[in-house]
Amino acid sequence: MTLAQPSHQKAKALRPGARRPAKELCSECGLCDTYYIHYVKEACAFLNQQFPALEAQTHGRDRDLENENEQYFGVHQDMMAARKQQPIEGAQWTGIVSTIAIEMLTQGKVEGVVCVQNTPEDRFQPQPIIATTPAEILAAKVNKPTLSPNLSVLEQVEQSGMKRLLVIGVGCQIQALRAVEKSMGLEKLYVLGTPCVDNVTRAGLQKFLDTTSRSPETVVHYEFMQDFRVHFKHEDGSTETVPFFGLKTDQLKDVFAPSCMTCFDYVNGLADIVVGYMGAPFGWQWITVRNDRGQEMLDLVMDQLDTQPVMSTGDRQAAVQQSIPAYDKGVTLPMWAAKLMGVVIERIGPKGLEYARFSIDSHFTRNYLYTKRHYPEKLAAHVPEFAKRIVSQYKLPE
After folding, report:
1. Structure confidence at residue 4 as a pLDDT band (50, 70, 90)
2. Which CATH number goes with the domain that contains 286?
């Protein structure tokens, strides 16, 4: 007896360059590059915001909005600061994400890992792959701060016959993945997430580098860090720092993708485990375990990590309120003033989880305003309840 072909396999992926259903809000997650476009109206984070339902599907419950940590950081059962005892050479931080992925593969938990390498021509141009060797995983180390079509390999997963898969990705990709998960024919899906904010097109990235770094052509990677500075790592191993408050905001206001300006899943709430940095002390990574699958992944590498409890000090709210009109008006401080402000805020400003809340508040208020102004018809349905509660703490301009 021949089994009927799944309905989604009859759909046709959009050709390269074609306009996607989410139009200018498309985050280029890659779903529409496959026959899983069949599900796009339900699956796309920018066509159908369905956080509570997908949280319940993924974690067995949605987040407790009366618990501040859950309201901000999503469903979780554990949280810690960590770093590898022996860092991976060339990793953006200490290499926890790569290490988890390698252990999942070599210990037979999964048959493949969806991750993102770069093209041979451009270190910042993403190239999603299904890694089946540790070497392929290590070739994907270092974040690609551009929109990335991670889900473009989903057809290959199904056609390969793989039944146990690990996917590494960011919030918009993972929301779409969770929406089609039951149609993928997998026996086990693990999701290792990273927090994500303010991605850009490749052209947008170049504008950011050109306006911010002293040597844009030699930047290997960069990150907005807890010391209120952007840290650029260069080819010669040197580090360049630029204070947040010295960024040319007037030139960079429109560089971020519209999808990122309307996103409220900074912390990747639908992943099983999330590895980032913003809730940890400087030099450490922040691990959020959301469910038992996430704990299973973390257990594989715990003997390779130093860990400490998360901490929280300071008060973010005045700084957030002051930043709202400054960003809205594109204010750029002279570099001497920006450096001085950075030093002061680093000493007395929010740290640990309070810094994470500062970052979330700053971006959610900005994104709420952007959505309200550019997509008012979407505002009520698109902004999740947890984000509305966070934004309601602040006075916003019209």
Report:
1. low
2. 3.40.640
